[in-house]
Amino acid sequence: MENQEDQEQKSLILNLAARPDIAGALKNGVRVIPVEIEDQMKEAYLGYAMSVIVGRALPDVRDGLKPVHRRILHAMNERAWRSDRPYVKCAKIVGEVIGNYHPHGDTAVYDTLVRMVQTFSLRVPLIDGQGNFGSIDGDEPAAYRYTEARLNKIAEELLRDIDKETVNYSTNFDDTKLQPDVLPANFPNLLVNGSTGIAVGMATNIPPHNLHETIEAVITVIRNPDVTIPELLKIMPGPDFPTGGTIIGGEGLISAYTKGKGSIRIRSKVEIEENAKGREVIVVTEIPYQVNKRVLLEKIGELVNDKIIEGISEIMDLSDRTGIRIEIVTKKDANAQVILNQLFKLTQLQVSYGITMLAIIDNKPKIFNLKEILVSYSIHRNEVIVRRTQYDLDKAEKRAHILEGLRIALDNIDEVIRIIRASKNPAEAKEKLMATFTLSELQTDAILEMRLQRLTSLEVQKIIDELEQVRALILDLKDILAKPERVKDIVCTELKEVMDKHGAKRLTEISLESIESSTFNAEDLISDEEVIVQLSEDMFIKRLPVDTFRKQKRGGKGIQGSSVKRDDFIKKVVTAMTHDNLMLFSNKGRAFNMKVYEIPIASKEARGKSLKAVINLGEDEVITSLYQYRELDDSALLMVTRQGFMKKILLNEFSNTKKSGIIALGLRDGDTLIDVVSTKSNEDVFIGTRNGLAIRMNLSELRSQGRTAQGVTGMRLSEDDIIAGVTIVKPDSSLFVLSEYGYGKRTSYDEFSTKGRGGKGMTYVKVGEKNGKSVGIATVSENDEILVITQSGMAIRTPAKDVSIIGRTAVGVKVVDTKDDDGVIDFAVISDNEE
Q: How far apart, in whole angstroms, are the C-alpha atoms of residue 327 and residue 617?
């Protein structure tokens, strides 16, 4: 078969020869043919353009590779330079590629090989390198005589079953070898690793994606061909860059996935910390994809030197092999958030990234939307499985044919030996055997080549057993070819194997704050699932999946539930659904509102995002209560202050609540808002103090008040006591209380009679040196679970039914095993009803 460039040259010659004037001249023996320069330039340039587009600069939609990438991987596979073999010099790889498959410069081949090694260039590197392959600072790789490489395990999935006639081949540039037109590609490499290329008159820029999410999307397309792009975006919400960062710009992302073109912004992952001197420090831990860190730092330095950005006293690059860490120390009176916003605007801490989903299909360039890429890949994998099955079937049938011949010979072994001994030569023996037993030439050759040891009874039985196995295999392979659903099942199963073996967590965070499309909204792109929202003492917020915290029996030590920096600790924790609204109430009686999905999702070790960068908190203002709700309705909220005052207010009063904040409660001097719960007018409310006193009252006589009202007296407190929490009494439930040192208990509400407001209360837990003061209270049922967070960041998730129901004056049982210098900060109830 001819390669692409030879075909284009021959096509050009044939097109010229087909023209009447040139054909006539050639017929008359004219050697010099007059040609219009305009026509010649047009035809020559179009041929060159198509050669660059199809044969050099753009990836194939099926395996996501350009010809040079494909040739490198194929050459390494052919020479067995695989993951289970020793490394080889890159000079040897480059020589093999340019000598047999890619007749271009060694620099072009080596640069391509280097990029397939770099962990900051590809989301899933295809080649395993040993040596200096460059850095994110823009350092050049070592020369290819110094570096070594071999195929990565994931690259072998791209080449899997290539020896089973699963893809077409064409000849190389000198017709001495065959090279694959496409690889079998047992994972969607085009989306996983992305591609960048500039052709003639067109360019592609496909970002990398998460392997696990992309394979899930492919399987979804195969199982449900009618799936929509918004549904796919719930599975793979956006790119996943190897350098992490945060994606901002939902409209551009939606445009890219629906129309094939769009633009997003990638922002560095940044936290604002405080150093030992009390100065605010901007800490950069991740930078945008394809940004040169050295150039970035030089640009920041220039802006500081030119006094375009003021307030920076020092810039330190503390990056090492474990990751990036850039510390930008601000001056004493500088505002770190203002400086950070300037850096986002003026430097590559935030960059624009244009997406163009252009790839080759059927030797033609095409702009794809997300679903079209997934469908094209699934069709390719379907064809690969069919061709592989046919290859295995042909091989199995050939083997069965030989085994049947051997069985005939063994059944008539005496006659076979007689014929062979009576023959003058092998050719005569072959003819007589074929005539006597009606054997094919293939079967006869196998009989004549059979060794005498195969005549033992054990070997004879092996042949019979193998024949039965091969026949069963043939039936199975034919069944696969006859049933398209079985082919789909095989495609999905093999993709899941790759996903389970090589899948990794998402590195890039996606911010959906700017989505304002009438067709799509953030809820369309995010699955509605239960999460844990954590708020730290220093006002850093994050959300985590509920399954982050494994279930444990009560009394366990728990797992690390957050990172602890500068004595920061988790202050509040609440369960919510990602589509819920989250209202944040401050100690100064103000309310702020945001969507739960707007809270950054993070690992349990991460600190989260500073609330100061999200909502408009005033000086000395902190969040003291979190309340989640789905929609505004006629339900009421009950607010309780530290000094025991309470106020009922309708939820509809907060229709104008935004991140800038509004007044929720008028406070008396020295008082602060402690907690907010949802309630109905005829329900009983239970208020508990830190010293273990509580009052149960009915809210039927408590009227609703406006946002600026101060409320009424709910409970009279002693001077050394404050409110610990408030909860609503529910049927078929009990009171749960947790103390500082990890002791908790459940108590029946029947032990508490309903009183009027304004009383001093009665004991609901015995407070002492053993258990410490009460941390909070909640209403729980048998099916609920309790998530406890300690000051050191440890977390334990335990079933509520494991906590004993005991009397109101008891201390309780050990729920979490705290250390001497540790204590419980807060807890949340994970309710089965909410799920």
A: 25
* 548-568+631-830, CATH topology level: Neuraminidase (2.120.10)
Sheet of 581-586, strands arranged across: 623-629, 581-586, 590-595, 662-663
Q: How far apart are CA 809 and CA 203, in angstroms?
A: 74
Catalytic, 45? Answer no
The residues that bridge with 329 in the sheet, in sequence order, are: 281, 314
**Interatomic CA distance for residues 471 and 402, integer angstroms:** 12
**Calpha distance 138→176 (Å, rounded):** 39
Indicate the domain borders of the chain. Answer: 4-206, 269-348, 377-498, 548-568+631-830
Say which residue the tokens 């208020």 belong to: 687
* Token output for 505: 């967590």
Buried b (16+ CB within 10 A) or exposed e, 77-114: bbeebbeeeeebebbbbbebbbebbbeeeeeebbebbb
Residue 547 DSSP code: G
CA atoms within 13 A on the CB side of 233: 23
**Six-digit token pair at 9?**
């040259």
Going by the DSSP 8-state scheme, the letter that residue 2 receives in this structure is -
Take residue 509 and report the two structure tokens written for it.
């965070």
Measured at the CA of 61, the angle between CA 57 and CA 67, to 5 degrees, comes to 40
Q: What are the distances in angstroms from CA 244 to CA 56, 91, 471, 589? A: 29, 32, 52, 37
Report mean pLDDT in 10-residue bins for the chain, 835 residues. 56 60 60 76 75 79 94 96 96 96 92 96 96 95 96 96 94 92 96 90 92 96 94 92 89 90 93 85 94 95 91 92 92 83 91 94 92 96 96 95 90 89 90 89 88 77 91 95 95 96 92 51 68 84 76 52 51 85 91 86 75 81 89 87 91 84 89 88 88 90 87 90 91 92 92 89 91 91 86 82 90 84 82 51
For residue 683, give the nearest of 714, 733, 728 by alpha carbon.
Answer: 728
CB atoms within 10 A of CB 551: 13
How many helices (H) and strands (E) in the chain? 20, 41
DSSP SS3 for 239: coil
Q: In the CATH scheme, what is the homologous superfamily, with its name and number, of domain 377-498?
A: Topoisomerase, domain 3 (1.10.268.10)
Q: Are 187 and 158 in contact (CB under 8 A)?
A: yes
Phi first, then psi, for residue 801 (nearest 5°) are: -70, -15
Cβ-Cβ contacts under 8 Å for 139 (sequence gap 6 or more)? 132
Query: 27: Cβ–Cβ under 8 A, 6 or more apart, which residues?
Result: none
CB 273 within 8 A of CB 563: no
Q: What is the CATH number of domain 269-348?
A: 3.30.1360.40
The torsion defined by the Cα of 602, 604, 610 and 611, in degrees rounded to 10, comes to 90
What is the CB neighbour count within 10 angstroms for residue 475? 11
492 phi, psi to nearest 5 deg: -65, -40
Distance CA 781, CA 832 (A): 9
CA dihedral 394, 395, 401, 403 (to 10 degrees): -160
Fold of 4-206: Topoisomerase II; domain 5 (3.90.199)
Residue 628, φ and ψ in degrees, nearest 5: -105, 145
Token pair, residue 21, equals: 């004037």
Between CA 526 and CA 532, with CA 531 as vertex, the angle to 5 degrees is 145
Question: Distance between CA 21 and CA 40 in Å, rounded?
Answer: 14
Cα distance between residue 197 and residue 207, in whole Å: 12
Beta bridge partners of 359: 366
SS3 279: coil
Question: What Cα–Cα distance (Å) separates residue 782 from each residue in 461, 530, 800, 811?
Answer: 63, 19, 6, 20
H or E element in which residue 734 lies: strand 734-739
How does DSSP classify residue 166?
Answer: -
The residue from 45, 48, 110, 146 that is catalytic is 146
Q: Which residue has the tokens 């349990």?
A: 604
102 is written with which tokens?
């890619």
